[in-house]
Amino acid sequence: MMTLDRLQRAVGMLRPHELRLRHDACPLCRFAWQVRLRDEEMGVRCPRCGASAVTQSLVDVLQQLPLNLAQVSAYELSAQGPLVKYLRRRCRSVLLSEFFPGVEAGQWLDGVRCEDVQALTHADASFGLCTSTEVFEHVEDDAAGFREIHRVLRPGGWFVFTVPLDLAKATVERTVLENGVRRNLLPPEYHADRYRGAQVFCYRNYGADIVDRLRTAGFASAEIRRPRAQLFGHARAVVCAQKSLGKV
Ligand SMILES: [Zn+2]
Fold it and tell me: Left, alpha or beta for 96 (phi > 0: left; psi -120 to 50: alpha)?
């Protein structure tokens, strides 16, 4: 059901002249209609579960992978939202976490586990699937984060995630570390984070070479996949990386 909170957010996002309805099933909840509140990927929503075009792209790609979610222990790098609900319904188990600056990793804050993806507290080979949406552009040392996701995945495990991605370009680092001090190379870019009600610093703009970064971090394969359908012209490329089936 649509909560008052979600209704308020929908009204806040609405541009009346861009409002459209379309007959198209949501990959998360199978509801048959989609609504466009405004002509942006975050403005395209499933009216029932609230999944945006980004989340629907991720789940559509996830459903094309050779993964039986009912047997999978999943780890999602957020603690709320339509993707969390979907994973909880479908997977054998789901662990959730959020990054809270200043809170020690492995600690709990208001019922939410705190983790820093650059140094996870989980044991090696704990999960068959890790997911995240719009996280890694905000991680200072993304190479460390990718290595940690690889470490906590089981052999053959999948890392399926989205970041803002410009496939026509190479990754642009927006900052550089000089003598232990981080300096902006480009004007600071911030993205809205609804969970913390804050703007979060963006360290880089990813390009097609993100798959090279994943292979360097240890993944046996890494590729960019497209969802099967476009929603009002919006579809997000999804990054899929698999850990080797062999012992690593
Ligand atoms: Zn839905």
Answer: beta
Q: Taking 70 as the threshold, does the pLDDT of residue 191 lie above it?
A: yes
Element (H, E) at 182: strand 181-184
Q: What integer is the mean pLDDT of 201-210?
A: 95
C-alpha distances in Å from residue 152, one per residue of 65, 169, 233: 19, 30, 36
Q: What is the pTM of this model?
A: 0.93
What is the amino acid identity at position 178? E
Does the structure show a pLDDT above 70 at 248? no
Distance (Å) from CA 60 to ligand 1 centroid: 12
Closest CA to 210 of 119, 154, 136, 132: 136
For 35, 37, 62, 235, the CA distances from 40, given in Å and listed in that order, are 12, 8, 22, 10
Q: How far is the CA of 21 from the centre of ligand 1 (A)?
A: 14
C-alpha 107 – ligand 1 centre gap (Å): 32
Q: Where are the domains of the chain?
A: 55-242
Q: What CATH number does domain 55-242 carry, 3.40.50.620, 3.40.50.150, 3.10.28.20, 3.40.430.10? A: 3.40.50.150
Binned at pLDDT 50, 70 and 90, residue 9 comes out as confident
**Cα distances (angstroms) measured from residue 83 to each of 35, 86, 142:** 18, 5, 22
Q: Which two tokens stand for residue 233?
A: 């012209």
The residue whose two tokens read 């992978």 is 65
